Amino acid sequence: MLPLRCHLNQAPPQVLCRFCAVMGKLQSKLKHSTYKYSRPDGIIEDRIHTKAFQEYTPAHVDTVSVVAALNSDLCVSGGKDKTVVAYDWKTGNVVKRFRGHEREITKIACVHKSNQFFSASRDRMVMMWDLHGSPQPKQQFSGHAMVVTGLAVSPDSSQLCTGSRDNTLLLWDVGTGQCVERASVSRNLVTHLCWVPREPYILQTSEDKTIRLWDSRGLQVAHIFPTKQHIQTYCEVSEDGHKCISCSNGFGGEGCEATLWDLRQTRTRMCEYKGHFQTVASGVFLPRALALMPVIATSSHDCKVKIWNQDTGGSKTRGSQQLKMSIFVFLCPGPALF
C-alpha cells in the first residue's frame, strides 16, 4: 500500500490535501502557502500546504498514462513511451520492464492475487503479461478497430472484457485468447470498464453520457442508468458490489461531479459529489478502516484529490459533523492510484 498522507483535523469533509502522484516521483502539487479562498458557489475551502515525499528516479521517459496495483509492494504503470513497468514503490526500483505495444498505453488491469496483468494501448491491442515470465507478452488480444479505452478482468480471472472508441465491447477467453462475445452500440465511445465483484456484470462509462451495466452472459445490456449531462469518464464499484461511482467531465465547475449509484434492485442515484472545477478523472471507495464514516476519494484535472463523506456528499456535514482524524490515501489492490 502506498501511503500518501494528509491530516484532516477539524476540517470539513470537502477539505483535503492536494498532491500529484507521478510514477518515479511523489511530490506535493502545491507551491503556495496555505490560505482560504471563496468558490463561486460560496463554499469556503482551505488549501493545505503539504510536504514533498521522497523522490525516485523516473520509471518512464515520457508521460505516465495509467498506474494500477499488482500487490501491496508493486505497482504497474504504462505510458506514452509504449512500455509497461513493474515498479517497487517502497524502494523506487524498476522490477521489470515490458515491451510489445507500438503506441501509448491507455489502461492497466491486474489479475487479483496473481502476478499477471493486462495492458491496453492506442495500437488497438491488449496484451497479457506475467511478472515472473518473459518480458514479451504472454497473450495478445486483437479485435478492436480503434484505441482500447476499457479493460476489466472477471472475478475468477477466466474472462477479459475490453472496450474501445469503436463503439464495441469484446469478451475474451483469457486461456485461449479468443473473442467469445461482441456487442456494439451506436455512439458508445467507451471510457472505462469495471467488473462487479462476485457477479457476471460489467459496469461501463461512455462519452455518450451514459452508464451501462452489461451482463457478461451473452454480453447484453442489463441496465442503463439515467443519462448524465456530461461525458462520463470513469467508474468504480465498491468491494461489496452494492454501489458504484461514475465521474463526469466538465470545466469551471459545470459538470465536474462524481455520482454514487445503487447497484442493487433500485439502481437509483444515491448521492452527488460537487466541488471540483475541472473534469473528474477517477474515483475510489476508501477502506472503511481509514475513517469514522464511509468515504470516497476523487481526483480531477484541477490538480485536486477530494475526500467525501459517502452518504452525505460532504458539504452537508460541514460545521456540525467534522472529520477529526488522520486519513491515508492508499495504493490498494485495485484499478486506481490515489
From TrEMBL:
* Residue stretches of each WD repeat: 98-131, 141-182, 183-215
Q: Does the keyword Transport apply?
A: no
Gene3D superfamilies in the cross-refs? YVTN repeat-like/Quinoprotein amine dehydrogenase
Per the record's keyword annotation, is Cell division included, yes or no? no
Q: Which UniProt keywords apply?
A: Repeat, WD repeat
Which residues constitute the signal peptide according to the record?
none
Name the UniProt record assigns to this protein: WD repeat-containing protein 31 isoform X3
| The species this protein was found in | Hipposideros armiger (Great Himalayan leaf-nosed bat)
